[in-house]
């Protein structure tokens, strides 16, 4: 095991996963922490669990305040193709950027901490929309909203980091990156990544989609790990090269990767400085897209939608009924999605009654190819599901 957890701690963790309410999660996580032995191998797990416990307690207090009609809610329901949280230090220009890109009403002022709650807005890209969420500023070392903003980032699909070209963008970036990493949020893509999507009880079992390789095991080993935690219905997606330890670690969510876009804002004040800082940041994280622009002038962000689309690995799948027209609105899925995911998105009964699918588009060998549930779909595919009468 990755942390050599004793049987008691494993049993406690199962209770954490089974918890439904915040109160249940807090109690289960407290019991789990008490059962985890203190040694070098569990240090990171204990740190993550402690921070997660603090986040849950804050969330519980927030809900109580909201129920009592006081305080500010930090919960933002996801809409559109993906939710992207926009973060930055005070006066970085986050609010101006979100307002320019989405037209949403957000509070803008030339003094720190003018934004005191998350404000969502919609950014259109072709035939889909991205939800951008403006947030209160982060303050490295501890701020009034740090945990709540980090909680928003954890639940998001990606993050936009806005840096102020009036100050030192590189220093700001490293500071924000460090703050996120303390909470187990990675901005760099690891060599391999595992996503475990739990599904409703049924006869689906544990499905494994390989978009990489398991270095020290097999798909059967993956299923055994899931079953050891009483997970009998799940979709395990494996990207890149991973070990069985990586797969087990994914159950704890102690580290999560968030794709990021870096924005050097107020570049119009000193474009050469912005370019130099962009180069320095690129050396730190070569894979993160960097935009040099000015939110005030609304310049430099013309390709943001395209960047987010590629960064998130989004695919659009269009459905059609037999002998019917193609739907105007696409299903939004992720790279690696299969006909099974398409069928589930339409109606859960389609899995039970599934007969075959017909595919037109990039993933089809020929127009109207017949496939099964395991066929991997691609962006632009048209899928027609046929079910048993």
Automatic annotation (TrEMBL):
Keywords tagged on the record: GTP-binding, Nucleotide-binding
Residue span, TGS domain: 313-387
Residues making up the signal peptide according to the UniProt record: none
Family matches, as PROSITE patterns: G_OBG, TGS
CDD domains in alphabetical order: TGS_DRG (cd01666)
Pfam families: MMR_HSR1 (PF01926), MMR_HSR1_Xtn (PF16897), TGS (PF02824)
Listed transmembrane segments: none
SUPFAM superfamilies on file: P-loop containing nucleoside triphosphate hydrolases, TGS-like
An annotated Gene Ontology molecular function: GTP binding
Gene3D superfamilies xrefs: 3.10.20.30, P-loop containing nucleotide triphosphate hydrolases
InterPro entries xrefs: Beta-grasp_dom_sf (IPR012675), DRG (IPR045001), G_OBG (IPR031167), GTP-bd (IPR006073), GTP-binding_2 (IPR031662), P-loop_NTPase (IPR027417), TGS (IPR004095), TGS-like (IPR012676)
Protein name: Small GTP-binding protein
PANTHER family xrefs: DEVELOPMENTALLY-REGULATED GTP-BINDING PROTEIN 2
Residues annotated as domain OBG-type G: 82-313
